[in-house]
């Protein structure tokens, strides 16, 4: 039986790949998509998500717009310099126009309604800032009983990408991330950029996607600005499709190897704001010291079979 899945997203090039991976998969029942502020403003993330679903011929999937800003403090920047001004290297308008209207419900209401109607547990894959998910768990606590796992792309165990300490999704709304990761509402899997960077794809992979058919070619056409950014970030011709790594785990549990450790998010206004602190000390050492009350156990993805993962992504997208 197909696994029930909801994606919360802020497309973004890697989000577009991740959403297409889920929309095309026969292994999941994609119940809905919710959008959030992030890589570009909410209006752009919402139309981008709807156009990607139209590309994949998934007019059956409802899309609802969510939070246009973080829970508490406004952000200082978005990521247009990475993804292009429209989030998709300036090529969003080249995608098919959606035939299904935007859902009249807000994202949190759609999430709550889909969970309430589900006859089995649902996986949620938030691949942008966690504002919508934090609001859901706060406003609809009973909904957590219907959540099988929350598979999150975000965080950094080493250095960040938006600041020296913080990864973009978590940095965009640290208070929301702390609410979700430390709330103990539902089991969380955190897929940090330390692992997603190792899963980067190169020119040959991208060329094969481009030649695979209309959908692969359309996805490939969204990558120029993003790929140019990663030529500098990686030092070679390739790019990191962070969110698709997390969605691969959401679709097929066990794709990534995880360690269960306490995690908390730095919500101060110092240089560490948005940092993800994972306590990877041995359990005996953790037990012998004072553990912070704000940390909860999270399954943190630390490894995978890189070749197998890249093959899974390519097969799923073509």
UniProtKB/TrEMBL annotation:
An example molecular function term from Gene Ontology annotations: purine nucleosidase activity
GO terms for biological process, alphabetical: purine nucleoside catabolic process
E.C. number: 3.2.-.-
One cellular component (GO) term of this entry: cytosol
Region Disordered, annotated ranges: 76-100
Key words, A-Z: Glycosidase, Hydrolase
Sequence ranges assigned to domain Inosine/uridine-preferring nucleoside hydrolase in this UniProt record: 5-309
Gene3D superfamilies, per database record: Ribonucleoside hydrolase-like (3.90.245.10)
Pfam family, one: IU_nuc_hydro
Name under which the protein is recorded: Pyrimidine-specific ribonucleoside hydrolase
Protein's organism: Prauserella sediminis
């Amino acid at each position: 039986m197909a696994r029930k899945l909801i994606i919360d997203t802020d497309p973004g090039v890697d989000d577009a790949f991740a959403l297409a991976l889920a929309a095309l998969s026969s292994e999941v029942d994609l119940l809905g998509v919710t959008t959030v502020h992030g890589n570009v403003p909410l209006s752009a993330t919402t139309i981008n998500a709807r156009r990607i679903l139209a590309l994949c011929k998934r007019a059956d999937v409802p899309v609802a717009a969510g939070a246009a800003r973080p829970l508490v403090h406004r952000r200082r920047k978005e990521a247009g310099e990475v993804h292009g001004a429209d989030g998709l290297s300036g090529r969003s308008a080249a995608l098919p126009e959606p035939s299904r209207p935007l859902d009249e419900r807000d994202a949190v209401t759609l999430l709550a309604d889909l969970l309430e109607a589900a006859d089995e547990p649902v996986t949620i894959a938030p691949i942008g800032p966690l504002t919508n998910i934090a609001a859901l768990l706060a406003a609809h606590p009973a909904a957590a009983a219907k959540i099988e796992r929350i598979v999150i792309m975000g965080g950094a165990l080493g250095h960040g990408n938006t600041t020296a300490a913080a990864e973009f999704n978590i940095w965009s709304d640290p208070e929301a991330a702390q609410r979700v990761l430390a709330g103990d509402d539902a089991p969380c899997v955190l897929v940090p950029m330390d692992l997603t960077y190792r899963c980067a794809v190169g020119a040959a992979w991208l060329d094969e996607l481009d030649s695979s058919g209309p959908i692969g070619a359309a996805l490939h056409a969204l990558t120029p600005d993003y790929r140019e950014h990663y030529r500098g970030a990686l030092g070679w011709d390739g790019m990191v499709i962070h969110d698709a790594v997390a969605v691969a785990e959401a679709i097929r549990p066990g794709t990534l190897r995880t360690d269960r450790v306490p995690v908390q998010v730095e919500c101060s206004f110092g240089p560490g704001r948005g940092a993800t602190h994972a306590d990877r000390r041995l359990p005996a050492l953790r037990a012998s010291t004072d553990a912070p009350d704000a940390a909860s156990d999270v399954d943190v993805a630390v490894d995978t079979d890189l070749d197998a993962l890249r093959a899974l992504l390519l097969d799923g997208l073509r």
